[in-house]
Amino acid sequence: MAATWSLGSALRGMFSRATIDDETWSDLEDALISADFGPDLTDAIVDELRGKVAKYRTTDPADLQRMLRETIEERLSRLDSTLTLSNRPAVVLVVGVNGVGKTTTIGKFAKFLTNYGRSVVVGAADTFRAAAVEQLATWAERGGASIVRPQQPGQDPASVAFQTVEKARRDGIEIVLIDTAGRLQTKSGLMDELSKVRRVVEKLEPIAEVLLVLDATTGQNGLAQAEAFIEHAGVTGLVLTKLDGSAKGGFVLAVQEKTGIPIKLVGQGEGIGDLTGFTPHVFAQQLVG
Ligand code: GDP
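Predict the joint structure of the above. Result:
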Protein backbone atom coordinates (compact mmCIF):
# COMPACT_ATOMS: atom_id res chain seq x y z
CA MET A 1 0.00 0.00 0.00
CA ALA A 2 1.31 3.45 -0.87
CA ALA A 3 2.20 5.62 2.12
CA THR A 4 -0.43 8.26 2.88
CA TRP A 5 2.20 10.99 2.45
CA SER A 6 3.12 9.83 -1.04
CA LEU A 7 2.80 12.45 -3.76
CA GLY A 8 1.50 9.70 -6.04
CA SER A 9 -2.06 10.85 -6.68
CA ALA A 10 -1.18 14.57 -6.68
CA LEU A 11 1.41 13.98 -9.37
CA ARG A 12 -0.30 11.29 -11.40
CA GLY A 13 -2.18 13.67 -13.72
CA MET A 14 0.95 15.65 -14.31
CA PHE A 15 3.15 12.73 -15.24
CA SER A 16 0.54 11.19 -17.48
CA ARG A 17 0.51 14.19 -19.83
CA ALA A 18 2.31 13.88 -23.15
CA THR A 19 4.71 16.74 -22.66
CA ILE A 20 6.05 19.17 -20.07
CA ASP A 21 4.15 22.45 -20.43
CA ASP A 22 3.10 25.44 -18.28
CA GLU A 23 0.33 23.45 -16.69
CA THR A 24 2.86 20.81 -15.61
CA TRP A 25 4.85 23.38 -13.69
CA SER A 26 1.85 24.89 -11.95
CA ASP A 27 0.55 21.41 -11.04
CA LEU A 28 3.96 20.51 -9.64
CA GLU A 29 4.01 23.68 -7.56
CA ASP A 30 0.50 22.98 -6.22
CA ALA A 31 1.40 19.39 -5.38
CA LEU A 32 4.51 20.43 -3.43
CA ILE A 33 2.73 23.21 -1.54
CA SER A 34 -0.14 20.97 -0.52
CA ALA A 35 2.33 18.31 0.62
CA ASP A 36 3.79 20.80 3.16
CA PHE A 37 7.11 21.50 1.45
CA GLY A 38 6.52 25.17 2.29
CA PRO A 39 6.80 28.06 -0.20
CA ASP A 40 10.60 28.53 -0.05
CA LEU A 41 11.48 24.90 -0.57
CA THR A 42 8.82 24.55 -3.28
CA ASP A 43 10.32 27.50 -5.18
CA ALA A 44 13.83 26.13 -4.78
CA ILE A 45 12.84 22.69 -6.07
CA VAL A 46 10.80 24.03 -8.99
CA ASP A 47 13.66 26.36 -10.02
CA GLU A 48 16.16 23.54 -9.80
CA LEU A 49 13.96 21.28 -11.94
CA ARG A 50 13.32 24.02 -14.53
CA GLY A 51 17.08 24.37 -14.83
CA LYS A 52 17.59 20.64 -15.29
CA VAL A 53 14.78 20.30 -17.82
CA ALA A 54 16.32 23.15 -19.85
CA LYS A 55 19.82 21.73 -19.53
CA TYR A 56 18.83 18.26 -20.71
CA ARG A 57 16.35 19.65 -23.28
CA THR A 58 13.69 17.15 -22.32
CA THR A 59 9.93 17.50 -22.70
CA ASP A 60 9.12 14.08 -21.25
CA PRO A 61 7.20 14.15 -17.94
CA ALA A 62 8.80 10.82 -16.99
CA ASP A 63 12.19 12.59 -16.97
CA LEU A 64 10.73 15.26 -14.72
CA GLN A 65 9.48 12.63 -12.30
CA ARG A 66 12.94 11.04 -12.15
CA MET A 67 14.56 14.45 -11.64
CA LEU A 68 12.15 15.29 -8.82
CA ARG A 69 12.97 11.99 -7.11
CA GLU A 70 16.72 12.62 -7.50
CA THR A 71 16.48 16.19 -6.24
CA ILE A 72 14.60 15.13 -3.12
CA GLU A 73 17.03 12.28 -2.48
CA GLU A 74 20.04 14.54 -3.01
CA ARG A 75 18.68 17.18 -0.62
CA LEU A 76 17.82 14.58 2.02
CA SER A 77 21.31 13.08 1.69
CA ARG A 78 23.09 16.35 2.46
CA LEU A 79 22.97 15.47 6.14
CA ASP A 80 24.24 12.19 7.56
CA SER A 81 21.44 10.06 8.99
CA THR A 82 23.75 7.48 10.57
CA LEU A 83 23.39 6.97 14.32
CA THR A 84 26.68 7.28 16.23
CA LEU A 85 26.53 4.59 18.86
CA SER A 86 30.12 3.36 19.01
CA ASN A 87 30.91 4.46 22.59
CA ARG A 88 30.60 1.83 25.28
CA PRO A 89 28.17 2.56 26.76
CA ALA A 90 26.63 4.85 24.13
CA VAL A 91 24.33 7.28 25.93
CA VAL A 92 21.29 8.55 24.03
CA LEU A 93 19.00 11.26 25.43
CA VAL A 94 15.51 11.17 24.00
CA VAL A 95 13.75 14.55 24.15
CA GLY A 96 10.47 15.96 22.89
CA VAL A 97 7.08 17.26 23.95
CA ASN A 98 4.56 14.93 25.63
CA GLY A 99 2.31 13.10 23.19
CA VAL A 100 4.69 13.02 20.23
CA GLY A 101 5.45 9.32 20.77
CA LYS A 102 8.57 9.48 22.94
CA THR A 103 7.77 6.49 25.17
CA THR A 104 6.70 4.34 22.25
CA THR A 105 9.81 5.36 20.32
CA ILE A 106 12.09 4.33 23.19
CA GLY A 107 10.47 0.88 23.29
CA LYS A 108 10.70 0.49 19.53
CA PHE A 109 14.29 1.75 19.48
CA ALA A 110 15.24 -0.69 22.23
CA LYS A 111 13.72 -3.49 20.15
CA PHE A 112 15.52 -2.27 17.02
CA LEU A 113 18.83 -2.42 18.92
CA THR A 114 18.25 -5.71 20.75
CA ASN A 115 17.30 -7.27 17.39
CA TYR A 116 20.86 -6.41 16.34
CA GLY A 117 22.18 -8.15 19.46
CA ARG A 118 22.83 -4.96 21.42
CA SER A 119 22.08 -4.78 25.14
CA VAL A 120 20.00 -1.80 26.22
CA VAL A 121 19.02 -0.11 29.48
CA VAL A 122 16.34 2.57 29.65
CA GLY A 123 16.44 5.38 32.23
CA ALA A 124 13.09 6.79 33.35
CA ALA A 125 14.21 10.39 33.88
CA ASP A 126 10.70 11.79 33.47
CA THR A 127 10.17 11.31 37.17
CA PHE A 128 7.04 13.33 37.90
CA ARG A 129 4.45 11.19 36.18
CA ALA A 130 4.23 7.79 37.85
CA ALA A 131 1.95 6.49 35.09
CA ALA A 132 4.52 7.56 32.50
CA VAL A 133 7.21 5.55 34.29
CA GLU A 134 4.98 2.45 34.25
CA GLN A 135 4.20 2.93 30.57
CA LEU A 136 7.89 3.27 29.82
CA ALA A 137 8.63 0.11 31.82
CA THR A 138 6.10 -1.83 29.73
CA TRP A 139 7.66 -0.61 26.49
CA ALA A 140 11.22 -1.24 27.74
CA GLU A 141 10.25 -4.81 28.58
CA ARG A 142 8.70 -5.32 25.13
CA GLY A 143 11.90 -3.98 23.62
CA GLY A 144 14.04 -6.43 25.60
CA ALA A 145 15.66 -3.69 27.70
CA SER A 146 16.14 -3.33 31.44
CA ILE A 147 15.01 -0.15 33.18
CA VAL A 148 16.18 2.15 35.95
CA ARG A 149 13.26 3.88 37.67
CA PRO A 150 13.13 6.75 40.12
CA GLN A 151 13.26 5.54 43.73
CA GLN A 152 10.55 8.01 44.63
CA PRO A 153 8.26 10.18 42.52
CA GLY A 154 9.84 13.48 41.66
CA GLN A 155 13.41 12.26 42.21
CA ASP A 156 15.92 14.51 40.45
CA PRO A 157 15.83 13.40 36.78
CA ALA A 158 19.59 13.94 36.51
CA SER A 159 20.21 11.46 39.31
CA VAL A 160 18.09 8.79 37.57
CA ALA A 161 20.05 9.42 34.36
CA PHE A 162 23.32 9.14 36.32
CA GLN A 163 22.25 5.86 37.94
CA THR A 164 21.25 4.46 34.55
CA VAL A 165 24.68 5.17 33.07
CA GLU A 166 26.32 3.72 36.20
CA LYS A 167 24.28 0.54 35.81
CA ALA A 168 25.31 0.26 32.14
CA ARG A 169 28.97 0.56 33.10
CA ARG A 170 28.64 -1.90 35.96
CA ASP A 171 26.71 -4.52 33.98
CA GLY A 172 28.46 -4.00 30.63
CA ILE A 173 25.27 -2.81 28.92
CA GLU A 174 26.08 -1.29 25.53
CA ILE A 175 23.39 1.32 25.00
CA VAL A 176 21.61 3.68 27.40
CA LEU A 177 18.33 5.32 26.33
CA ILE A 178 17.26 8.11 28.67
CA ASP A 179 13.65 9.26 28.60
CA THR A 180 13.21 12.90 29.59
CA ALA A 181 10.29 15.09 30.57
CA GLY A 182 8.25 16.86 27.89
CA ARG A 183 6.22 19.50 29.69
CA LEU A 184 6.56 22.45 27.40
CA GLN A 185 4.29 24.62 29.58
CA THR A 186 7.34 25.37 31.68
CA LYS A 187 9.74 25.79 28.81
CA SER A 188 12.63 27.37 30.68
CA GLY A 189 12.24 24.89 33.55
CA LEU A 190 12.26 22.00 31.10
CA MET A 191 15.30 23.27 29.24
CA ASP A 192 17.18 23.77 32.53
CA GLU A 193 16.27 20.24 33.54
CA LEU A 194 17.59 18.85 30.23
CA SER A 195 20.84 20.82 30.59
CA LYS A 196 21.32 19.42 34.07
CA VAL A 197 20.71 15.86 32.85
CA ARG A 198 23.36 16.44 30.17
CA ARG A 199 25.89 17.90 32.59
CA VAL A 200 25.48 15.14 35.13
CA VAL A 201 25.62 12.32 32.57
CA GLU A 202 28.73 13.86 31.02
CA LYS A 203 30.52 13.43 34.34
CA LEU A 204 30.49 9.72 33.51
CA GLU A 205 30.28 9.42 29.70
CA PRO A 206 30.05 11.64 26.65
CA ILE A 207 26.57 11.85 25.15
CA ALA A 208 26.44 9.92 21.89
CA GLU A 209 23.14 11.27 20.55
CA VAL A 210 20.36 13.64 21.60
CA LEU A 211 17.33 12.52 19.62
CA LEU A 212 14.40 14.90 19.30
CA VAL A 213 11.11 13.10 18.71
CA LEU A 214 8.68 15.03 16.49
CA ASP A 215 5.15 14.10 15.48
CA ALA A 216 5.24 14.33 11.69
CA THR A 217 1.53 15.14 11.54
CA THR A 218 2.01 18.49 13.31
CA GLY A 219 3.59 20.31 10.35
CA GLN A 220 4.69 23.86 11.12
CA ASN A 221 3.86 23.47 14.85
CA GLY A 222 6.37 20.66 15.02
CA LEU A 223 8.98 22.95 13.52
CA ALA A 224 8.37 25.61 16.16
CA GLN A 225 8.76 23.00 18.92
CA ALA A 226 11.94 21.70 17.34
CA GLU A 227 13.57 25.11 17.49
CA ALA A 228 13.31 25.39 21.28
CA PHE A 229 14.94 22.01 21.78
CA ILE A 230 17.59 22.59 19.15
CA GLU A 231 18.54 25.86 20.78
CA HIS A 232 18.83 24.43 24.28
CA ALA A 233 19.27 20.67 24.21
CA GLY A 234 22.09 20.06 21.70
CA VAL A 235 19.96 17.89 19.41
CA THR A 236 21.99 15.62 17.08
CA GLY A 237 19.17 13.80 15.30
CA LEU A 238 15.44 13.82 14.65
CA VAL A 239 12.98 10.98 15.03
CA LEU A 240 9.79 11.51 13.03
CA THR A 241 6.83 9.57 14.39
CA LYS A 242 3.36 8.90 12.97
CA LEU A 243 4.47 8.88 9.36
CA ASP A 244 1.75 6.28 8.88
CA GLY A 245 -0.84 8.90 9.91
CA SER A 246 -1.91 12.07 8.18
CA ALA A 247 1.66 13.36 7.81
CA LYS A 248 2.50 15.20 4.63
CA GLY A 249 5.61 14.02 2.84
CA GLY A 250 7.07 17.47 2.27
CA PHE A 251 7.38 18.01 6.02
CA VAL A 252 10.14 15.42 6.12
CA LEU A 253 12.41 17.39 3.81
CA ALA A 254 11.26 20.78 5.16
CA VAL A 255 12.07 19.84 8.76
CA GLN A 256 15.55 18.68 7.86
CA GLU A 257 16.32 21.75 5.74
CA LYS A 258 14.90 24.20 8.28
CA THR A 259 16.63 22.71 11.30
CA GLY A 260 19.86 21.53 9.68
CA ILE A 261 19.57 18.36 11.81
CA PRO A 262 19.43 14.95 10.14
CA ILE A 263 16.47 12.61 10.48
CA LYS A 264 17.84 9.42 11.99
CA LEU A 265 14.77 7.28 12.66
CA VAL A 266 11.16 7.15 11.48
CA GLY A 267 8.13 5.66 13.21
CA GLN A 268 5.39 4.32 11.01
CA GLY A 269 2.97 2.64 13.37
CA GLU A 270 2.09 1.82 16.95
CA GLY A 271 3.68 -1.63 17.05
CA ILE A 272 7.04 -2.49 18.58
CA GLY A 273 8.52 -3.23 15.14
CA ASP A 274 7.38 0.02 13.52
CA LEU A 275 10.61 2.00 13.69
CA THR A 276 13.26 2.08 10.99
CA GLY A 277 16.40 3.96 10.11
CA PHE A 278 15.99 6.79 7.63
CA THR A 279 17.11 6.06 4.07
CA PRO A 280 16.82 9.04 1.69
CA HIS A 281 16.78 6.80 -1.38
CA VAL A 282 13.86 4.71 -0.13
CA PHE A 283 11.99 7.75 1.14
CA ALA A 284 12.35 9.68 -2.14
CA GLN A 285 11.19 6.61 -4.06
CA GLN A 286 8.11 6.22 -1.84
CA LEU A 287 7.35 9.92 -1.99
CA VAL A 288 7.61 10.48 -5.73
CA GLY A 289 7.02 6.97 -7.05
P1 GDP B 1 4.79 10.42 24.67
O1 GDP B 1 3.85 11.17 25.52
O2 GDP B 1 5.61 11.33 23.81
O3 GDP B 1 5.66 9.48 25.44
O4 GDP B 1 3.92 9.60 23.62
P2 GDP B 1 3.53 8.06 23.55
O5 GDP B 1 4.72 7.23 23.23
O6 GDP B 1 2.75 7.69 24.76
O7 GDP B 1 2.61 8.08 22.25
C1 GDP B 1 1.46 8.89 22.14
C2 GDP B 1 0.50 8.21 21.16
O8 GDP B 1 1.07 8.21 19.84
C3 GDP B 1 0.22 6.76 21.49
O9 GDP B 1 -1.15 6.52 21.25
C4 GDP B 1 1.08 5.98 20.50
O10 GDP B 1 0.55 4.71 20.18
C5 GDP B 1 1.05 6.90 19.30
N1 GDP B 1 2.22 6.71 18.41
C6 GDP B 1 3.53 6.79 18.71
N2 GDP B 1 4.30 6.58 17.61
C7 GDP B 1 3.45 6.36 16.57
C8 GDP B 1 3.62 6.09 15.17
O11 GDP B 1 4.72 6.03 14.60
N3 GDP B 1 2.46 5.91 14.46
C9 GDP B 1 1.23 6.01 15.03
N4 GDP B 1 0.17 5.84 14.24
N5 GDP B 1 1.04 6.27 16.32
C10 GDP B 1 2.13 6.44 17.09
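The chain has a mean pLDDT of 92.
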